[in-house]
Design a protein that fits this description.
54% helix; alpha/beta
């Protein structure tokens, strides 16, 4: 049953939305801008995995390497911000040190309602970053807050389904960037 659901939901993914995400990442790469990726729980693992793929695999393209960082990976900083300033500041507190106009913040969230991601997007928008989100269910608050939402529409509570499709989207986007070659494509 789960495999059938994954196939069905994958077939509904809007390819043009994935292409816009790839174009945003490509633009950041070509400008030398940073891409920050964040998520909670299973989405944190997806964020970390994707940063690994984007940072390493895309070097094969011969293009400028992506400057990519997972805001979920520095656990000591993440927990210090959460403990001292509140969990909702775990990502925005890090972005305050790094974010510059032209950078990209990508959030991964099944619900789209995580307060720490919402605060990160608010900070990113105030710093003139492009904001992207891989979402699930109905997209939540983030759907209306980010510049480019990519929503995997499912019933609420289908976390595993959303996370599996998010992972496939991340791999597809990475493959597009790996396929790039210097010069006109």
């Amino acid at each position: 049953m789960h495999f059938e659901d994954v196939r069905r939901v994958l077939a509904e993914v809007q390819v043009y939305a994935v292409q816009r995400l790839v174009d945003i990442f490509r633009g950041a790469r070509d400008r030398g801008s940073f891409i920050y990726i964040a998520g909670n729980g299973g989405s944190s693992s997806t964020a970390s995995h994707w940063v690994n793929d984007l940072g390493k695999a895309t070097k094969r393209s011969g293009c400028r390497p992506l400057k990519v960082m997972c805001l979920s990976d520095n656990m000591s900083w993440f927990s210090a911000l959460s403990n001292d300033e509140g969990y909702e500041r775990a990502f925005s507190g890090q972005l305050e040190n790094f974010a510059s106009p032209g950078d990209v913040l990508t959030c991964i969230s099944a619900s789209g309602n995580s307060p720490n991601l919402v605060r990160a997007v608010e900070l990113a928008r105030s710093r003139k970053l492009t904001t992207v989100a891989l979402l699930g269910f109905d997209g939540g608050v983030l759907k209306g807050l980010v510049d480019e939402p990519l929503c995997v529409k499912t019933e609420k509570g289908r976390y595993e389904l959303v996370e599996d499709v998010h992972s496939a989207i991340c791999h597809a986007a990475t493959r597009c960037l790996v396929a790039d070659r210097p010069g006109p494509n």
